[in-house]
Amino acid sequence: MTSQNEPGKHMSAEVSAQPAIFAGLVERRAEIAEVAEQVRRRKPRFVLLAARGSSDHAALYAKYLTEVLLELPAGLVSPSTTTLYGAQPDLTDVLVVSVSQSGGSPDLLEVTESARRRGALTVAVTNTADSPLNQAAELSVDIGAGVELAVAATKTYSATLLALYLLIDAVRGGDGEHVRNIGELAQATLDGSVDAVAEAVRRYRFVERVITTGRGYSSATAAEAALKLAETSYLAARAYSGADLLHGPVAAVDAETAVLAVTSLGKGGAAMKDVLDVVHQRGADVLAVGSAASDAAAALRIQVAESAEEVAPILEVLPVQRLALGLSLARGGDPDAPRGLKKVTKTL
């Protein structure tokens, strides 16, 4: 069933809306800073992040931010340890951040309620201010992306990244300097990547197997890229960190493999150079995406506007979303309504 006879129109509009959403979210930085101040006063010793789906990739990004910028240990929650196995660890002085675009996942709700009972400071980061998750958490951050009509998350994912960055940056005492013009950078990225994305759609229209890879902060973008390609174009897409790719999976890379490599300026992008050299030597067709794409060993490159490395994932994902949209349409699909998927997936 197509989206009102125009496949992809919602996803296309929502991708294009992101620069304005980013600018609006930055303008609301003071609201997020108030939440951050309460976190700072509690002085958490550890951070746990709970999420599912695309939000799980946003949580992975937040894990890197927490460990690098706050120098606090951080981990990703396995909700089933609470919902299926009933584990009740002591979470005194622990910050639990639950990330959910809808705020309606029963397992995340249970994790948040349980964590709060066990002494954690709980923060919900959602796109639905009146959601059950927001009500369950002690504090909440509204990402303010507006209603998302396409099943595949685009604007809610990127806005979640930005909201998490603003929160963590404020906890460390930052002033949001690196994202002050993020809306302009996002628009420049979307405008400047149109031709390269179109060429990538033509080049990879008939591919069936894709590996996505990145390092550091960009690991989250690689994971989200694999999910978007799988859910919109039904591709067999698998994400690996650049380091893990060389520890075995590279053996499966050959001339029939398309590799989407996320590489932006900074330590993570620099660490991808050796990875791409190896993959390129194995004959893989490499598509490099990021602000360091021009220096990558690749068959095709999609350049992204330069930014501080810690905020690059907010920009890197934009042409990836456009690529997923274009491939889905080129392959006869409707990315607004992928088969077998719903907007909110409820798991226990």
Low-confidence stretches: none
Order of helices and strands: HHHEHEHEHEHEHHHEHEHEHEEH
Question: What's the count of strands?
Answer: 10
Name of the CATH first level of the largest domain: Alpha Beta
Q: Bin the helical content.
A: 40-55%
- CATH level 3 topology of the largest domain: Rossmann fold
Question: What would you report as the Rg, rounded to the nearest angstrom?
Answer: 19 Å
CATH superfamily of the largest domain: Glucose-6-phosphate isomerase like protein, domain 1
What does the average pLDDT come to? 94
- The total domain count is 2
Structural class: alpha/beta
Return the CATH architecture of the largest domain.
3-Layer(aba) Sandwich
What coarse outline follows from CA principal-axis ratios? globular
Note the main sheet. 5 strands, parallel
Distance between the termini: 29 Å
Q: How is the largest sheet built, in terms of strand order?
A: 2-1-3-4-5
Measured by DSSP, the beta-strand proportion falls in: 15-25%
Q: How many H/I helical runs? A: 14
GO biological process, one term: carbohydrate derivative metabolic process
Domain SIS: 35-177, 197-338
Organism: Solihabitans fulvus
Pfam family, one: SIS
Short recap of the structure:
The protein has 348 residues and is of the alpha/beta class. The chain is 47% helix and 15% strand. The chain contains 14 helices and ten strands.
Labels describing this entry:
348 residues, alpha/beta, Rossmann fold, 2 domains, five-stranded parallel beta sheet, 14 helices, 47% helix, GlmS/FrlB_SIS, repeat, SIS domain-containing protein, GlmS/AgaS_SIS, SIS_dom
